[in-house]
Amino acid sequence: MAGNTVVNAVLASLCLFSGASAWPFKTRQTALTLDNVQEQALANAYKVLDGTLADGLTRSTGCSKDTVAVRKEFGDLTKDERKEYTRAVKCILEKPSKLPAGKYPGAKSRYDDFVVVHMNMTPSVHATANFMHWHRYYIWAYETALRTECDYKGWQPYWNWAKYADLVNSPIFNGDEWSMGGNGDPIGAHAGTYIGSQMLPGGPGGGCVTKGPFANLTIHLGPLMPTMDPKLGIKSNPRTDGFGDNPRCLRRDVSNFFTASYMRPQDLLDQITAAPTIGKFQDSLQDAGAKKPALHVGGHFSIWGDPGGDVYVSPAEPTFWLHHGQLDRHWWMWANYQEKELKSRTSMYEGGTNWMNPNSAKGKPTDNQWLDVVAPAGKNGLPSNQFFSTTAGPFCYVYA
Ligand SMILES: *[C@@H]1O[C@H](CO)[C@@H](O)[C@H](O)[C@H]1NC(C)=O
Ligand SMILES: [Cu+2]
């Protein structure tokens, strides 16, 4: 690593002048690991809560070390906790929609309300200043709906991208009764898709999900921006806006293409340490340049399928929330792991307001964000500056 070479050179020259016996440091500097980043972020988040570290935000007294929710990695939940989570997701898949009747014929359930809101918001919440903030708000709304509308007692779990080089056989996708359902059934050779300039080959699945808690789930909305092989004959939506009713099976094409080579602990660490500002951080998360796939995109296309590979409709894939939970955690780690950077990183806000237009109006921290019918009661239209910290504004959670 170039940084280490510089440090070593400086240390070597210190030795020349002072002599090894007068070594000025107590311990040798050891390389930072991704685990250190998580540990330091959590320790600093607790310091902010007990008042020994300032992040520049004012917070109500309701959120403390004793009351703060702890979001966990899916595989770290007990089997009972995992089952309780998928029970709640299935519950929300069965509750009635709260959208105006007839306006969105494909919105068959309360779960679909979340999908419709994402479809409507897509151009204004991706590659924009509010990308991280709006999605933090959105995931929290989903977690809140599971708890208030389906009696879920836990918190939103996440998928640590760096944890399973073999994602296909991970506790998330292995298809057992405690998983998030299996891969799509194998359909043999099928076309890949381009992720930027890189070709993602067709994976080991591609068919309908027929194992585990979401076996034979029917989805209705979209597709709007499909990426699966056209030869599979996935039906187009009867409406050009994707809101028509288009019943079809949930497909996945989970593969280890990204997790084995581009989403390893060092890859996550490098992305975090290379970004001094939130602009650079959110840009490199979404577009890492021509040579390698970005982490946000790699996560979506590790799951792929229909609607998992459709940027508008992807929340209709039940593991969307685990992937975006990790995206939120990744941001939380970046903002919190260095004590001296925590305050400035917490309130950084950079970027435009429309994904296709780099010259769109600049986003402001006071811009209101919208969740329509999926906003928790009394919490629609909060400004982005309410989402700077996971323990301020409407939130009170950390990641373990
Ligand atoms: C899912 O569909 C497949 C194929 O039609 C069927 O064999 C299987 O029993 C179904 N599983 C469940 C849980 O309904
Ligand atoms: Cu999104």
UniProtKB/TrEMBL annotation:
Molecular function per GO: metal ion binding; oxidoreductase activity
SUPFAM superfamilies per UniProt: Di-copper centre-containing domain
Superkingdom of source: Eukaryota
Entries under InterPro entries matching the protein: Di-copper_centre_dom_sf, Tyrosinase/Hemocyanin, Tyrosinase_Cu-bd
Ranges where the Tyrosinase copper-binding domain occurs: 108-336
Pfam families: Tyrosinase
Assigned keywords, A-Z: Metal-binding, Oxidoreductase, Signal
Signal peptide: 1-22
Protein name, as recorded: Tyrosinase copper-binding domain-containing protein
